[in-house]
Design goal:
With 267 residues, the protein is α+β, with helices and mostly antiparallel strands. It contains twelve helices and ten strands. The protein has an eight-stranded mixed sheet, with helices on both faces. Strands 1-2 form a two-stranded antiparallel ribbon. The longest helix is centred in the first third of the chain and has 22 residues. The termini are far apart.
């Protein structure tokens, strides 16, 4: 029974696409033909098979998901979205360390949605991408993780602290040490800014670099060897913002607030 139902869902692209279409709401045959670019002759046998398996029902010449059909499709979507996400940028996901993610968010990586993979222009490889700076400078509620040090970061995040309503900034151990050595002035400013909290990550491993605001998210996964290759993920989807906020909260729970520090000294 289970195998037969699985075959009816997955072994026909027309049936799979129809189930996904009906997740959006009931459709008559003309709407189905137009949406899926099919003919009545090609589609009606597939509709009959789905009706026979009680996955769809017909009411007033419209087809819609049955209760079982809706349950099946809702559980299909995460797998379909995950496969689509990985297929689109297979090399990126193979080469970057996503095992660092907590299990509950690893399973929901598909929630990044319609993300953009930003690859560096060879002429500007070592400059901070404009997509990153321009969108963050327009944000008011910002949560960020500086996982690796870039010389431009202390000045840029100080500028964000002046412009944003709230900025929460988590530093990796290595980024914190570099800022203490090279950018004590900016670090002091961030620590004294009333709208800014600065924390030190003390959990296991090194988290990805994260920036998430009320309307924009940006994440930089490290490669398996711990290096950064300037390939970044950006998304504006609501599901991506929620996912990234939860990821930030996970790392925030494993961090301690920095209140004062002497150059070269401890917290």
């Amino acid at each position: 029974m289970t195998s037969s139902l699985t075959d009816h869902v997955w072994l026909s692209e027309k049936r799979t696409n129809l189930l996904l279409l009906l997740m959006e709401g009931p459709r008559d045959i003309e709407q189905i033909k137009m949406s899926l670019n099919v003919t009545s002759r090609g589609m009606m046998p597939q509709i009959k098979k789905l009706k026979d398996k009680h996955l769809i029902i017909e009411e007033d010449e419209h087809y819609k998901l049955s209760n079982i059909g809706e349950l099946v499709v809702r559980n299909m979507l995460p797998l379909i979205n995950t496969l689509s996400m990985i297929t689109e940028n297979k090399d990126y996901w193979e080469q970057h360390d996503i095992n660092i993610l907590p299990p509950h968010l690893f399973k929901r990586l598909h929630e990044l949605g319609n993300y953009l993979l930003l690859e560096p222009d060879l002429h500007y490889t070592f400059e901070i991408p404009k997509e990153f700076t321009e969108n963050l400078l327009k944000s008011k509620e910002i949560m960020s993780i500086i996982s690796f040090y870039r010389p431009e970061y202390p000045k840029f995040y100080s500028e964000l602290a002046e412009m944003a309503n709230n900025l929460t900034l988590i530093l990796s151990e290595s980024a914190f040490k570099r800022m203490k050595t090279n950018n004590m002035k900016e670090l002091d400013f961030l620590l004294s800014a009333k709208n800014t909290r600065v924390l030190l990550y003390q959990g296991e491993g090194r988290p990805p670099a994260i920036d998430v605001s009320e309307w924009f998210m940006y994440i930089s996964f490290l490669r398996e060897n711990g290096s950064y290759d300037h390939n970044d993920i950006m998304s504006f989807d609501e599901s991506a913002l929620k996912w990234c906020t939860e990821l930030f909260d996970h790392y925030c729970d494993r961090s301690v607030e920095i209140t004062d520090v002497e150059p070269g000294g401890d917290i």
